[in-house]
Amino acid sequence: MSLPFTHEQFLDVFGAYNSALWPLVVLIWLLTLGAVAQLYRRGVAASRLLAAVLALHWAWSALAYHLAFFRSVNPAATLFAGAFLVQAALLLWRGVARPDVSFTPNRTFWGMAGAGLIAYSLVYPALGVLFGLAYPRLPTFGVPCPTTIFTAGTLLLLPRRQARPLAVIPVLWAGVGGSAAYLLDIRADYALIMAGVVLLIYVLLPADGETA
User: Fold this and answer.
1) Cα–Cα distance, 42 to 162 (Å, whole number)
2) Structural domain span for residue 185
3) 45 part of a folded domain
4) Residue 1 reports pLDDT greater than 70
5) C-alpha span between 100 and 164 (Å, rounded)
C-alpha cells in the first residue's frame, strides 16, 4: 500500500494546521475536557452536551483539517470530509436534536475501556513530542485520529443499540487512519487501531434481549 504523500508532507500539513489554528485547538481541548468532567460528575444528564462536543469534533475535523489543510496533499480528503460531516450530523440528530443517546460511565470492562480511550485522547497532544516529533509539525487536537479515539471511548459508554449507528464511520476511519499511521510511523495513532477493534467487537456483541 502506498500513500499519495510523504511522511514529511504529512507533518507539514500538521505544521500549517497548528500554526494557523492553535488558539482554537486549545479551546476545543478545554471544551472537551469540560464535557468529560461533566459526564463523570453528572452521568447521563450530561449526554446532550457530550454529543454536541462530539459533533463539533467531527465537523471541525472535516472542515478545518480535511478540507482546509489535508486536501493539499491528498485529494481523497474531500471524500473524508464528507464522511466526517455525516458523522457530525448523526451525532447532532441522535444526541442533541432528539436526543436518544445515554452516555453512562460505569465500571464494567467496556466502561473502563471507554474511560481509557477518552483519557488517551485528552493527553494525545503531548504524545507526539513524547514519541520524538517536534511542535508544530505533529498531530495535536481536533484532527481525525484523536477525534476517532475520543469518539470510540464515548460510544463504549452507550447501550449497544444506541452505539451501533454511530460506530460505523469511526470504525471505518480507524481502519483508514490506523493503516496510514502505521505506514507513516505516527506512533501516537497506533491506539487508533485498537480503538476501532474494541469498538467493533462491542457493537457486534448481542445487546440485552438479542440472541447471538
Assistant:
1) 20
2) 7-204
3) yes
4) no
5) 13
CA 181 to CA 133: how far, in whole Å? 14
**Which distant-in-sequence residues (6+ apart) come within 8 Å of 166 by Cβ?**
87, 90, 91, 94, 101, 151, 155, 158
- Closest to 91 measured CA to CA, from 51, 143, 60: 51
- Within-domain flag for 58: yes
d(CA 21, CA 51): 23
Compute the distance between CA of residue 83 and CA of residue 59 in angstroms, rounded to an integer: 10
The answer as to whether 37 is a domain residue is yes
- pLDDT tens digits along 112-124: 999 999 999 999 9
- The number of folded domains in the chain is 1
Task: Give the pLDDT band (50/70/90) at residue 95.
Answer: very high
Q: 148: helix, coil or strand? A: helix
Task: Give dist(CA 133, CA 18) in Å, integer.
Answer: 13
149, 186 contact by CB (below 8 A) = no
CB of 95 closer than 8 Å to CB of 55 = yes
3 state SS of 132:
coil
Is residue 211 situated within a structural domain? no
> What does the alpha-carbon distance between residue 158 and residue 107 come to, in Å, rounded to a whole number?
13
Instruction: Residue count of the chain, please give it.
Output: 212
